[in-house]
Amino acid sequence: MIVESKYRRYSRMAAAWLITALFVFPLYYWGTTAFKEAKEIFSVPPTVWSFTPTLRNFEEVFGISFGFLRQQEVLPGGGNFYMAPRLWDSIVVAVFSTALAIAISTFAAYALSRMDFRGRHHFVAWVLSTRMMPPVAVAIPMFFIYKDIGLMDSYTGIILIHALMNLPLAVLLLKSFFDDIPREIDESAIVDGASRWKIFRRIILPMAKGGIAATAVLCFIFSWTEFIFVLTLTQTGLKTVPVVSSSFVTSTGTAWGNMAALGVAAMAPAFLFILLVQKQLVRGLTLGSLKQ
């Protein structure tokens, strides 16, 4: 029995490592492509492990020179593949839309968690149903609305639509975190003379800060990777990373090295935020079914 249990344990570990490798390998290959010359990217057989790393792709995408690392002068690239402003557009839109969505959803989720009113459960179901609506269903109507009110190609317009897109998910996630905080805490504070606002600000928010952080990360990622609204509601000015990635496909071919360099830079913030709040993120994705 002992030998069998060890065999099963080692088999599960081997299977887990194999599945992890299958998921991680595409990310590894994409990441290493950013450090390859064009001839190594298209070499047959492909160079997976052994290749000469270069920073040329990052120089062309971000318009900066890393020549000091090689003790030789390398002029920054740029041109059609200069994407530093587009990365800045993505950062501005994702950060401010996340802040707006969290600010609104925090109050809404607290009200749905603590205040009893007729049709509350139906209202929660309606909030969930709005998240299930495909973005393409409202992209065209929003295009005409934005064109009439002058919000095309503007930070304000994209920030607003991304915040609205993330509101249903943020409300439901934060409500699950607020539901885990016992109502007895609110009742005791009310008996002691505290107002609803003071309870919310001094007690509930500090206790739910992990859930708020996890929700903010999800909103940031969804805004960071959103494609349809930015493609529809921008024309010549503001562009985010997912939309502008299509410009790497030219009449002479696809600039895979430059695209990979931009992709690596775009994935870094999301991975960092996920690692910081991974415990709360997993629990939030289950809508509170996992208790701490």
Give structural notes.
With 292 residues, the chain is mainly α. The chain has a domain at 84-244 and 269-285: MetI-like (MetI-like fold, Orthogonal Bundle), CATH 1.10.3720. The chain has 15 helices and 2 strands. The chain has helices at 2-33, 38-41, 56-62, 67-70, 84-114, 120-132, 136-149, 155-179, 183-191, 196-207, 209-225, 228-233, 241-244, 256-276, 278-285, and strands at 249-250, 253-254. The protein has a two-stranded antiparallel ribbon. Mean pLDDT is 80; it is low at 68-78 and 288-292.
Keywords:
globular, mainly alpha, 292 residues, MetI-like fold, 71% helix, 2 strands, single chain
Gap between N and C termini: 34 Å
Strand content: under 5%
Q: Determine and state the CATH class of the domain at 84-244 and 269-285.
A: Mainly Alpha
Give, in order, the helices and strands: HHHHHHHHHHHHHEEHH
Number of helices: 15
- Secondary-structure-derived class: mainly alpha
User: How many extended strands?
Assistant: 2
CATH fold-type name of the domain at 84-244 and 269-285 = MetI-like fold
What is the architecture of the domain at 84-244 and 269-285 at the second tier of CATH? Orthogonal Bundle
